[in-house]
TrEMBL record:
The protein's name: Pantothenate kinase
Gene3D superfamilies membership: P-loop containing nucleotide triphosphate hydrolases
Pathway given in the UniProt record: Cofactor biosynthesis; coenzyme A biosynthesis; CoA from (R)-pantothenate: step 1/5
Reactions the enzyme catalyzes: (R)-pantothenate + ATP = (R)-4'-phosphopantothenate + ADP + H(+)
């Protein structure tokens, strides 16, 4: 069965013709492009204005449903809207999630938006070492899924001052002395390789998400992006960080990165990440330059 059999694929031209009620001004597009230089103003407009139209619709539907529920069950409070974003390592999830958060604040200035990464729920390296899981880092077993679910439920219940761990890519570990504070908000964006995964018959984080997006690209392109990101992290590394050790011999680092892709990240993509796209409502298909080539809507 084709992996997109359950989706309707539309090309870039059709996608960009969708218009939201509110559009970005030229100044807003330029400011977003300055903040996120991976995308020029035109690309941001093409990707995010149609996405805003979809999210406007989904938010309106949820708001109407909650209003109807409140007439039957007055004690039920309106729940926040949770957006899940998944995709391979290095496919651009974090950048897209941050750009989406910034775009939502423009389109919905009266709504509060929070952004978290599923990396916050990775077990720390000490735990992974102790349980012989370092070679499975990023696989489902390396995440504290119970804590992830508990956080999402607490957020859905509009609890305030929620504290979650912070994962540092430079340290390659959970930070021991810092936490992210997540307050009551109207919209939560959750991004990470495992955001949409269903690896158990029990309740999973994906069950608590209202709209689900998967970012896709050809595997060879993603591998190239991963190796480029590795070199960038090495060049930007400061002493006492994980990637700094490779500045003395970048070829050693390149060799490690290639091995990491083929023995861990590529395996994870085939075994767990890629199959989770079936749980998405929308798939964004990117080309070599991170530009949108097509989108796929869930049919059923």
């Amino acid at each position: 069965m084709n992996k997109l059999d359950d989706f309707q694929v539309v090309d870039r031209t059709t996608w960009q013709a969708i218009e939201p009620h509110t559009i970005f001004t030229k100044q807003q597009l330029e400011k977003l492009a300055q903040t996120f230089p991976m995308f020029d103003p035109t690309e941001i407009k093409v990707i995010y204005q149609p996405l805003m139209a979809l999210l406007e619709l989904k938010l309106a539907i949820q708001s109407k449903q909650m209003q109807q529920f409140s007439t039957w069950y007055p004690k039920i409070n309106a729940q926040p809207f949770v957006i899940g974003i998944a995709g391979s390592v290095a496919v651009g999830k974090s950048t897209m999630a941050a750009l989406l958060a910034a775009a939502l604040k423009i389109i919905f200035p009266n709504l509060q938006t929070e952004l978290v990464s599923t990396d916050s729920f990775l077990y720390n390296n000490a735990y992974l070492d102790q349980n012989d899981l370092m070679q499975a880092k990023g696989f489902p077993i390396s995440y504290d899924t119970a804590s992830f679910i508990a956080f999402l439920k607490a957020f859905k219940q509009r609890q305030t001052n929620l504290k979650i761990p912070i994962y540092s890519h430079q340290k390659y570990d959970i930070l021991t002395n810092q936490q992210q504070l997540v307050n009551n908000a109207d919209i939560l964006i959750v991004e990470g390789i495992n955001a949409l995964q269903r690896v158990s018959k029990d309740e999973m984080p994906v069950d608590l998400m209202d709209y689900k997006i998967y970012i896709d690209a050809d595997e060879k392109i993603i591998e190239k992006w991963f190796l480029e990101r590795f070199e960038r992290l090495v060049k930007e590394a400061t002493p006492n960080t994980y990637y700094y050790q490779f500045q003395a011999d970048l070829n050693v680092g390149r060799s490690l990165a290639k091995n990491t892709w083929h023995s861990i990240n590529g395996v994870n993509l085939h075994r767990y990440i890629g199959p989770s796209k079936i749980n998405a409502n929308l798939i964004l298909i990117k080309g070599p330059n991170h530009h949108l080539e097509a989108v796929a809507f869930k049919k059923y």
